Amino acid sequence: MNQAAFKELDQWGADGVPASKSSAGVVLPFAQPANGITGEIVRGICELRRTRDKAFPGKLFGDPTWDIMLQLYVAHLDSLRISISRLTRLCGVPATTVLRRLGALEDRDLITRTGDPFDARRVYVALSATGAHAMERCFTASGLRAAFL
Predict the structure, then answer these.
(1) Could you tell me the sign of the dihedral formed by the alpha carbons of 12, 89, 125, 145, in that order?
(2) What are the tens digits of pLDDT across the range 32-81?
């Protein structure tokens, strides 16, 4: 099996369902929270935050840590793997900021990092079980009002 085929197999399970891309500390794929929040809803919240930031330039509402957590929650809900470089692009903040915030989140056991077995330069990041539960509690308590957090 060549490297491309293995990557494809890594992305999809034998039953045609996306496989979990994270370490053992992350909640299983398709573990939709009871609060009804989906990846699409959280993506909409991220878009609202970007629209707000464009309307009020000058980083008046900047909170990179929350943006990181939202993007990782989307990846968790959609059972996707996300690299640190992609996370940096999605959040629209400098890589140094993302790395510093990821370090703080990792110290609090809210995220996990996993190296790419094919490319030592790439690192994947995901919510840990603790981080996923914290996001679920936040959205359960606030519902769609989380768009304004």
Answers:
(1) negative
(2) 555 677 888 888 787 777 777 777 777 667 789 988 999 999 999 999 99
Cross-strand pairs, 112:
126
Architecture label for domain 42-148: Orthogonal Bundle (1.10)
What are the DSSP calls for 5-60, one per residue?
HHHHHHHB-TTSSBPP-S-TTSPPTT---TT---HHHHHHHHHHHHHHHHHSTTTT
83 and 95 Cβ atoms separated by less than 8 Å: no
Nearest Cα residue to 87 out of 145, 127, 55: 127
Structure tokens that stand for 12 in this block = 């999809």
**27: buried, middle or exposed (CB in 10 Å: 19+, 13-18, 0-12)?**
buried
Region for 109 from its dihedrals, namely left if φ exceeds 0, alpha if ψ lies in -120 to 50, beta otherwise? left
Beta bridge partners of 115: 123
Please state, in angstroms and as integers, the Cα–Cα distance from residue 41 to each residue in 19, 106, 120, 121, 132, following that order: 22, 25, 33, 32, 16
**Domain spans in the chain, listed from the N-terminal domain onward:** 42-148
